[in-house]
Amino acid sequence: MAGNTFGNFFKLTTFGESHGEAIGGIIDGCPSGIPLDLEAIEAEMSRRKPGQSSIVTSRKEPDTIRFLSGIFEGKTTGTPIGFIIENTNQKSKDYSHIKDTYRPSHADYTYDKKYGVRDYRGGGRSSARETASRVAAGAIAKQFLKGITCNAFVSSVGEIFIDKPYQDLDFSKIEDTPVRCPDLDTAEKMISRIKEIKKDGDTIGGTVTCVIKNVPVGLGEPVFDKLHAQLGKAMLSINAVKGFEFGSGFCGAKMKGSEHNDQFNADGTTKTNLSGGIQGGISNGMDIYFRVAFKPVATIMKIQKTIDSQGNMLEMQGRGRHDPCVVPRAVPIVEAMASLVIADFMLANRLTKA
Amino acid sequence: MAGNTFGNFFKLTTFGESHGEAIGGIIDGCPSGIPLDLEAIEAEMSRRKPGQSSIVTSRKEPDTIRFLSGIFEGKTTGTPIGFIIENTNQKSKDYSHIKDTYRPSHADYTYDKKYGVRDYRGGGRSSARETASRVAAGAIAKQFLKGITCNAFVSSVGEIFIDKPYQDLDFSKIEDTPVRCPDLDTAEKMISRIKEIKKDGDTIGGTVTCVIKNVPVGLGEPVFDKLHAQLGKAMLSINAVKGFEFGSGFCGAKMKGSEHNDQFNADGTTKTNLSGGIQGGISNGMDIYFRVAFKPVATIMKIQKTIDSQGNMLEMQGRGRHDPCVVPRAVPIVEAMASLVIADFMLANRLTKA
Amino acid sequence: MAGNTFGNFFKLTTFGESHGEAIGGIIDGCPSGIPLDLEAIEAEMSRRKPGQSSIVTSRKEPDTIRFLSGIFEGKTTGTPIGFIIENTNQKSKDYSHIKDTYRPSHADYTYDKKYGVRDYRGGGRSSARETASRVAAGAIAKQFLKGITCNAFVSSVGEIFIDKPYQDLDFSKIEDTPVRCPDLDTAEKMISRIKEIKKDGDTIGGTVTCVIKNVPVGLGEPVFDKLHAQLGKAMLSINAVKGFEFGSGFCGAKMKGSEHNDQFNADGTTKTNLSGGIQGGISNGMDIYFRVAFKPVATIMKIQKTIDSQGNMLEMQGRGRHDPCVVPRAVPIVEAMASLVIADFMLANRLTKA
Amino acid sequence: MAGNTFGNFFKLTTFGESHGEAIGGIIDGCPSGIPLDLEAIEAEMSRRKPGQSSIVTSRKEPDTIRFLSGIFEGKTTGTPIGFIIENTNQKSKDYSHIKDTYRPSHADYTYDKKYGVRDYRGGGRSSARETASRVAAGAIAKQFLKGITCNAFVSSVGEIFIDKPYQDLDFSKIEDTPVRCPDLDTAEKMISRIKEIKKDGDTIGGTVTCVIKNVPVGLGEPVFDKLHAQLGKAMLSINAVKGFEFGSGFCGAKMKGSEHNDQFNADGTTKTNLSGGIQGGISNGMDIYFRVAFKPVATIMKIQKTIDSQGNMLEMQGRGRHDPCVVPRAVPIVEAMASLVIADFMLANRLTKA
Fold this sequence. Notes:
Chains A, B, C, D: Belongs to the chorismate synthase family. Chains A, B, C, D: Its EC number is 4.2.3.5. Chains A, B, C, D: GO terms for molecular function: chorismate synthase activity; FMN binding. Four copies of one chain form a homotetramer. Chain A is of the alpha+beta class. Chain A contains eight helices and 17 strands. The first copy, chain A, has a five-stranded antiparallel β-sheet with strand order 1-2-3-7-4, covered by helices on one side. A five-stranded antiparallel β-sheet of chain A has the order 10-9-11-15-12. Chain A has a three-stranded antiparallel β-sheet with strand order 8-16-17, with no helix packed on it. In chain A, a hairpin with a 6-residue loop joins strand 2 and strand 3. In chain A, helix 3 packs across helix 8 (327-349) and helix 5 runs antiparallel to helix 8 (327-349). The interface between A and B is large, with 110 and 111 residues. Strand 12 (241-246) of chain C pairs antiparallel with strand 12 of chain D, so a sheet runs across the interface.
């Protein structure tokens, strides 16, 4: 369990460093007979990739997926789907200055201590480039989940946030702005804020909210593998994530039971949905929604003090092309991971009854 | 992967319903040669068990653990540790009135839909009684983790919260009050609030904060099994939990990189610790700290409208002996799950280098 | 993966030493809604238990199973089935003489070296007593597999073997003799041979053959988890097993392709069945059959030289009540493990198609 | 657990069909800091690949491995090792005649029934081409296992077998002949036999014996994951395998305890080694040896009757370039799988003691 596999039934195993030859993965457990729309997969990849707009990194990576197995005549065959994404734009020299340097709040120090060695050309395995494999696999999971929709969007950037319940938002507007906030007034403010931050050589955090609709009743396993526990793990495994809450979340901790309980309608739906579509770890058929907190990107263009591997203090300044705010590009990653979790539980649920 | 096992190396599998014959579990993977202090295990059990004080349920459960295997002459043998806790105080009749009724914001409806059958005597497998097995296993993990300390405490009840950083708290005072808040002034307010809520037949939520000290550098696996992702899953698997954040958490999402980055000292420690002791999913040797949100208990003594399994609307009122606020008893459960996660990664880490 | 769990979907985890308080296990993944015939389970337990006849050990163990969870109103609930079997007849003193002694061809030496400690009262975890938990779980798997029949029988004892294909045997006669050989003439010879061996203070090996009928086409996973690979692992995990072959087995290695290939009938069945019901690791609907080799029991009543834990040479003689030949009691264990494998793949197969 | 992963700690997941774009895999769990000799890996690949001699298939596949990650500056980094092997010599048209035909004793029928679809160009996932990925991973495992030697050789072809204990063989001669039998007189007879069989358009089975030396005491997990149970599963997962035996094997089933028990020397070694280096599922430091039975290759050049997917009877004749006897090329595959098993348990063993 070296930590590079996600899922129990619809399983993704990934490999690859940011500056190695290629990244990629194997999806094992995808059922046979699913027609795959390869263009839709490429479209998801494009949402994640760098260089899309002025508020994200200007780095260019084509991120073309090459599927090597498990697909025949346009359909999945039930055998493992192997895929690779070549690293064509490695620019290793951008990173040579940090060979012996531990960047503050990066994984340089911890990887070096853990493994006794690290690929110092970029973040190696801890680079967000690894998430490209997740988006590829998540795009296949989405196609398996036909009918279940999974929409993530940026709900805050720094102190700027959407001041409306998600029910009042039009998800078709998520892609209308590069910041992926469907509330267009708020989106404008967010974009201005990110540009300001970027000009300042700084970075800023934010949150992504995700809403999953049409999930059947009964997904999730009791006790340790509760539906929201797996969703939480999935989200917390994304780079830069610091927190996860679903349904009423941290606000729920301030409430009384008489306010918080969701009263039933006769058909088993509930009048309110503070449960966030999950009761006792199992989906109840209502919308599942959750919120994910991302810290500001650690690479800033300002001068910082830090240490090298011998413990010498030195000054460094971020170089290269980095995101001033990670949340717009995190949106498709959140959707990918959520789709993988739901696909996994859809399969798990086939095992429940005699 | 039916969801009743936690951990990859120090593995706990649990069984048991609240009103069955017994609950229990198997710990598989605990190394041989660990001297076990059985009294310390019982002491942990006592912290979780009901009937401890006037602010928790008055239900009495002796919660005596019977170890059946894996321990010989006071030490672990490396073989699986089987244990059971008899259900001596079942009082099934307390629950007969809910046989066909789905209690609002409980797992009754979702279990019934998922499995097509449920043990209607109490919460069955979704009852918090299951957590007794976790506390037993966590107590053994704690003994394996000699030197690493794991302290949880109640950091808020409803709107009342500790307004100090954890560094200013004296953890030796956690057990001084039944509410398990080490800030004694705040503890008093919390206790008053819980009593008020109880008198009103209502319940209230709260948060638990946990601090783990002396964790070696290097724990956690990259990518999917990041240290905080497993901690998050562990916490979200506890009944009534709605959210998890570590280090800067949701506040971090509002910050700038220049504020958020933790500057290194020459020895690899950091001047600040917004990272929460984890960078890139791997421990960096600083304190690990996180916060867990618990919703108010769903069973209230007020009359509520609900439905039965035929979809008939009816009124119900909670009976029996329930907790007005779950967080004081959740403290040892949070510690148990955190200890299991750390124990698991301590073993995993033995596999890292050649 | 400390090796005490079997199966991926219908999972059994066992615990318990021969001379501890109890043995038992947890079945996790058994679907809900299966009516359980508890008497049928006890009947399987009786087939395995010692003291059944003059050709097996005279040790008495009641082997009563106590189910603790996962069953409600006569049916499985889908939650884990916990069970224990108390060790009521421990007679620890029988073993005190071997506290520091390594019995030849037992696991004493290897356990001691591996763990640095062992429960020297009997075989501890390596005792065949552990298989009682397997039989209990296998009996539940059998009930899940309604319609699929799994019959094992003794096919040889020492040099005496059944000289007929299994198709010519009447499985209803398996239980007619204590040796569990359905060919009654051969059974007589086997019984005489075992009595002779017993009188001599010696032991003897043998083989068990198992035939599984009515397995649907399509069970087994490609590549590593082939149906026969899991069956082989299951059998090789039983105490004293030295070999496994299925279909043509080792004889197949002497054959030519033109002799060995199974020609199809128009309906997909095959005229011959040298494949043993499995092609490419996947069941083809024909009978699955395999043969398992058991070595002679290592505990003999003759004087043997051996060593103690300090490397001193000494003489020892088996005491207590041991089986002169293990195969008659191995029959229900082989069936139990085979049933667990088939149950596991029946569940796995639900995941195959879209 | 879709069956494409082997191992619990040193884990290999493979993908790829014989006529897809590429095959490959991910090794997850290989420790950091192992210097890798890439030429030694290529040498192992050459031993398995087709076209080596006149007694194996004349098909040419360059089998060049491309490592994509997990290796930096000549050493493993502890992150997953991704690799691919392009399928450059696909010749799909060779197989068009079998699109709707089920070849006798192949996996065509069972795959089609299981998945409802199959890549009919060659054996797809059930092709022995998949084993190239195993050899690649096994070659890395071998380098991790420095000092432990693992030698397999052909011990029989049809009725011709080596009539000597393995101790009398000179393993340095294994590669002296294309049949990989170190007893050169027997090797000559085997080669003649295979040539005769090939001329006749037929195929023949055989056995491979494997000897592992210098295994430390203590490898193997009790109960289900016994060392020989995992070795058996590993071998039975190789294409065309019908049986596995270790130590005394099936012969042991004919013996008496007084003959079979291995007497100890004072240093814990044993005078005889009928145990095959494993007692109670755990290595005892003596040589581990086992034997694997391979059936004759199912593709023969003779005319056979068979059916198509509509159940029509038809005649077919093998075409293309196939092995008349699979065992010579199976030798490196047996070694690879054995090395993966031992590597896995070497890691597992790090978890045993406190």
